[in-house]
Amino acid sequence: THLLRKRDVLVRDAPAFVVNRLLSRTTTVLIDALEHENTVEETDEAVLRMGVPMAPSVLLQMVGPRVANHVLHTLHDAFPDRFPLFATLDNFAAGRDEIVVVEHSPRSVDELHEGVLEALADEARHILADGVVAEAADIDTCLLLGAGYPFWLGGITKHLDQTGVSERVLGRPLATLGAGVSGELHDFSRLSAST
Q: What are 54-73's pLDDT values in tens digits?
């Protein structure tokens, strides 16, 4: 990895590993907002406030709606309570640019931003509880190096801890949690290096 100028993060084999799992959790908040009549511009702004390098609508176009939908279906199969499926994303994956409105109840950009942060805090907790990574700093490394999360914020879990989101959602900072936060021990001997 030194010759490639890359850094490994030891992760357990799990659906979508770390980066795609967190990005997909963000996607669920944003697609839900679209289906409640928020605009694409509002959902983009809610995420761009985090200092990320590109709007989620641009990322979706780059990754491709089919790939994003496939990842979401995989995560839904594993964690249906946190990764619902959306008719809108199914439409996008099928090449139809149609948003399926389920209810007229748009939220403010501030509310969407908070919703994204809360979803990220919750999913980071699950990643730790599932033993996907050993500590919160590993999640930060994955997003800093694998998703272009801004270095100046120090990492997503650090940001969630410093802004009080972790405390509000989880009752304590993510930095205090490690693998197996639920109390069970995890065998890290079968981990694979991936972000």
A: 999 999 999 999 999 999 99
